[in-house]
């Protein structure tokens, strides 16, 4: 069994993908299954942490010994994240959060009308939860970890994103067809604000999760 190096710690993990409603039956979403976030939650619990898992639209069973809070949209995830972060030692944002949401929500199902072209969907920006958590640390010494899903120029984009978001660690995983979203495996480079670079070879999502907790644990100590 792993050393209980996170005993006495409270960690918050987000998982899954947000859904941005267009009307009562439709949404804009993404392909996140929640597997990477759940792997983080399960491994942190095994290392002794109290874990709050913010689950956005996942179909996975609740992990034993983890507090699961269900969220839907980016705005609902934001509220739950700020609440849970209040007494957290570390927050890890593995959820795929929509950058934009529809400007208007139709309270009744949008209907097609014969001979009428559909109206374009106007989008507005969602708040950047990771940047907010990083800028306004809810607790002194709190660690904030982000994920970055990149399809190209992975490392250069990752360094720029780390600086922009202001987090302590950024897990940069390459996504694309059969990579990242929905799979049981992942590969990543974890970039530290201190300049560190940790390469995690392709393997189970739990392996990447353990490396993240190693880095978090070392920085909390
Ligand atoms: O769920 P799986 O199927 O296992 O797939 C895992 C994963 C590929 C979704 C995961 O490993 C991953 O990369 N998650 C982050 C996906 C993402 O939204 O990346 P991004 O580059 O768009 O966002 C960067 C970071 O900012 C993320 O930590 C994200 O949670 C956060 N963010 C983004 C937008 C926003 N409005 N608020 C945020 O907090």
Automatic annotation (TrEMBL):
It catalyses: N-[(R)-4-phosphopantothenoyl]-L-cysteine + H(+) = (R)-4'-phosphopantetheine + CO2; (R)-4'-phosphopantothenate + L-cysteine + CTP = N-[(R)-4-phosphopantothenoyl]-L-cysteine + CMP + diphosphate + H(+). Pathway: Cofactor biosynthesis; coenzyme A biosynthesis; CoA from (R)-pantothenate: step 3/5; Cofactor biosynthesis; coenzyme A biosynthesis; CoA from (R)-pantothenate: step 2/5. The keyword Nucleotide-binding does not apply. Its EC number is 4.1.1.36, 6.3.2.5. GO terms for cellular component: phosphopantothenoylcysteine decarboxylase complex. GO terms for molecular function: FMN binding; metal ion binding; phosphopantothenate--cysteine ligase activity; phosphopantothenoylcysteine decarboxylase activity. Its cofactor is FMN; Mg(2+). Residues 6-217 form the DNA/pantothenate metabolism flavoprotein C-terminal domain. Keywords: Decarboxylase, Flavoprotein, FMN, Ligase, Lyase, Magnesium, Metal-binding, Multifunctional enzyme. Binds 1 FMN per subunit. CTP binds at residues 99, 109, 127-130, 147, 161, 165. GO terms for biological process: coenzyme A biosynthetic process; pantothenate catabolic process. Residues 11-221 are annotated as: Phosphopantothenate--cysteine ligase. In the C-terminal section; belongs to the PPC synthetase family. Catalyzes two sequential steps in the biosynthesis of coenzyme A. In the first step cysteine is conjugated to 4'-phosphopantothenate to form 4-phosphopantothenoylcysteine. In the second step the latter compound is decarboxylated to form 4'-phosphopantotheine. Catalyzes two steps in the biosynthesis of coenzyme A. In the first step cysteine is conjugated to 4'-phosphopantothenate to form 4-phosphopantothenoylcysteine, in the latter compound is decarboxylated to form 4'-phosphopantotheine. This is Coenzyme A biosynthesis bifunctional protein CoaBC. It comes from Streptomyces tateyamensis. The chain holds residues 183 to 403 of 403 of the full protein.
